[in-house]
Design brief:
Radius of gyration: 17 Å
Order of helices and strands: HHHHH
Largest sheet: none
Number of helices: 5
């Protein structure tokens, strides 16, 4: 609601915090969806263009990180980590991505889940995870 926290009861203020956190998670999920769309549209030359769920490529052009960085006003390294997270949440961890989209998980929690699962071998897929070559994903930004 448009009611300021100062004019609300304690219970209402607590409720507001939860609502804002869920809204922030949904917004983060939508931003990752936009980054993921750039990944989908820019497969790296010489690699299969759509070998993962949702038509995601095995690897993508490095320009994705630069384009995202320019728009998000961050480093290309941080934007590259966002691209990896966006890829992971659809290609390997769609359930986690859905929880983020629903506002159940925060962006930080989704990233932690992705980090923990990055060590698992998803060898039943025909492609390698582009975020790991070799070793665990580095999400440092």
């Amino acid at each position: 609601s448009g009611r300021p926290p100062a004019a609300a009861s304690d219970d209402e203020v607590i409720g507001m915090m939860g609502c804002w956190q869920a809204l922030e998670a949904r917004a983060h999920a939508r931003m990752l969806a936009a980054v993921r769309e750039l990944v989908r549209r820019r497969p790296r030359e010489g690699f299969p263009p759509a070998c993962y769920p949702g038509g995601l490529p095995e690897k993508w052009d490095t320009g994705v990180a630069h384009e995202a960085a320019a728009q998000l006003r961050t480093s290309w390294q941080a934007a590259g980590a966002l691209a990896c997270l966006a890829w992971e949440l659809e290609a390997r961890l769609p359930g986690t991505g859905a929880l983020l989209e629903a506002g159940v998980l925060t962006g930080l929690k989704a990233r932690i889940v992705a980090e923990e699962f990055s060590a698992l071998d998803f060898s039943d897929r025909s492609c390698e995870c582009p975020c790991r070559s070799p070793g665990p994903v580095s999400w440092a930004s």
